[in-house]
Design brief:
With 150 residues, this protein is mainly beta. It has two helices and eleven strands. It has one domain: Jelly Rolls (Sandwich), CATH 2.60.120. The strands form three sheets. The protein has a six-stranded antiparallel beta sheet with strand order 3-4-5-11-6-9, with no helix packed on it. The protein has a three-stranded antiparallel beta sheet with strand order 8-7-10. It has a two-stranded antiparallel ribbon with strand order 1-2.
Length: 150
């Protein structure tokens, strides 16, 4: 573990010495997405993790909710965000706050990759996949229901 200041150089949405990882392996409710942990485990002075996620065209993140909040900054492309019962168009440099227990899912649905920086607490709960009953109770918008990928 290192707490030494540093710069991690980037080129084409890849960072020197940072491994590109599969998004998740314990569920199958996502498509064409990878993650890079830019700052986190190795820097114990930080109380957060800074990660980059990239979704390929027509891909999406998992539909999920959790107790921890997080922030997102779009740094590549555009897409759509399901945020509880609403759809939001996302564009370059948009900033998103996802409050605790909010159902959410990112979609790269504009024919280009959607890339975003996501900052979360280092110590956090694991995401939960909302069941059909929870979705039925909380999502009433037909547009959102048609967009949800599970």
């Amino acid at each position: 573990m290192s707490n030494t200041s540093k710069v991690i150089k980037a080129a084409n949405f890849s960072w020197n010495g940072v491994e590109r990882k599969l998004y998740k392996t314990d569920t199958k409710n996502f498509k064409a997405i990878h993650r890079y942990t830019l700052l986190g485990d190795e820097i114990t002075a930080l109380n957060s993790e800074t990660r980059y996620f990239e979704i390929q065209p027509d891909g999406y993140s998992s539909l999920e909710l959790h107790r921890h909040p997080h922030s997102v900054v779009i740094i590549r492309g555009s897409g759509t965000l399901i945020l509880e019962n609403e759809l939001h168009a996302l564009n370059l440099h948009d900033v998103v706050f996802i409050a605790p227990e909010t159902i959410h899912q990112f979609h790269a649905d504009n024919g280009e990759p959607l890339g975003f920086i996501c900052i979360v607490d280092r110590y956090r709960d694991r995401p939960a996949i909302p069941d059909d009953e929870t979705i039925k109770e909380r999502i009433t918008s037909e547009k959102v229901l048609k967009k949800i990928q599970k």
